[in-house]
Known about the structure:
Layout: H1 7-19, H2 23-60, H3 62-68, H4 70-96, H5 101-106, H6 114-126, H7 129-138, H8 150-176, H9 186-208
Amino acid sequence: MFGTHSLALFALTALVLNLTPGVDLMFTLTRTLQQGVRGGLVAALGIAAGCVVHTLAAAFGLAALLAASAAAFTALKGFGAAYLVWLAIGMLRDAARPAPAVVAAATVAPPMSLGRTFRQALLTNALNPKVAIFFLALLPQFIDANAPNKTLAFLFLGACFVAQGFTFLALFALLVAPLRRWQPADAWRRSLQASSGLLFAGLAARLAFAERP
């Protein structure tokens, strides 16, 4: 279809990627525990939007630029790592701030708008150059050499990846959401925020020191 082949293998490869713990999965987990099902679904939607950005970039050449230019890769990597550090600092600050007893018993974290969650999810994905390189490395393997329109083939495979990724993260959010009913003590809330902040700081360091493929 659209000059592509081995779609079953492509779907399996994408599933393995989605199952691998990383920034997207951890972001969806933390937002689900903090905001419930709606927060998790919005996070999944924002991550899907970030994958749309990567699909368009791969289809129209930006990913090729990142693969060819060390300076471009380093710049985008720096922006992505800095943004993850900014998120980590926010989580650690929330962990250091005790919540009122009533609020702590009713929710895992202070309220956050769904719009802000969407923007954060989009940026954590879109500013990850390794995702862009992955799209450029993976998608061409499933496009026929004589495909009449390779851009259309890129867009089709990207759409399949986005749809599968969103479905996986949405189901993950639905499965994790019941954990929020435990009504944790404030110490548990602060521990979750601190752990999340340290995790995102670690992911930022991992991204900052990532080598260009």
